[in-house]
Amino acid sequence: MFNQTQLYAIDNVIHTNLIESGLDHVIFMDMAGNTIAKHDNGKSHLDSTAFAALAAGNFAAVDAMAKLVGESEFSLLFHRGEKSSIHFSKVNDETLLITMFNKDISLGLVRLKVTETIKKINTILAND
């Protein structure tokens, strides 16, 4: 699915665009819940394997709900907590980008950085 050059470039984009912008944790995964790349700020103690599996199930459930209300998909999900928030974005038909961030980071900044990152990842994937 991905070659080593693509994986290295994706890792670099995630680290530079998201982790260096202050996000706590980022998981790039396939729709089945398999982690392709993961990064954190060094302070995270997240079980990313379990989280990716749950995130895949969550995204699949929301996708089914979208179809029930006449939408082809909901390509973005957001969960806000008291201390942490989670932003889910569909990168393409096969992959998701999950970002976790604390209350000190604005949702607007996250959405901007995620949009930029997704464009760069899709460019990397298009250049086999």
From TrEMBL:
GO molecular function, one term: molecular adaptor activity
Ranges for domain Roadblock/LAMTOR2: 10-101
Biological processes per GO annotation: positive regulation of TOR signaling
Domain of life, source organism: Bacteria
InterPro entries named among the record's database cross-references: LAMTOR2-like, Roadblock/LAMTOR2_dom
Classification via Gene3D superfamilies: Dynein light chain 2a, cytoplasmic
Protein name: MglB: putative gliding motility regulatory protein
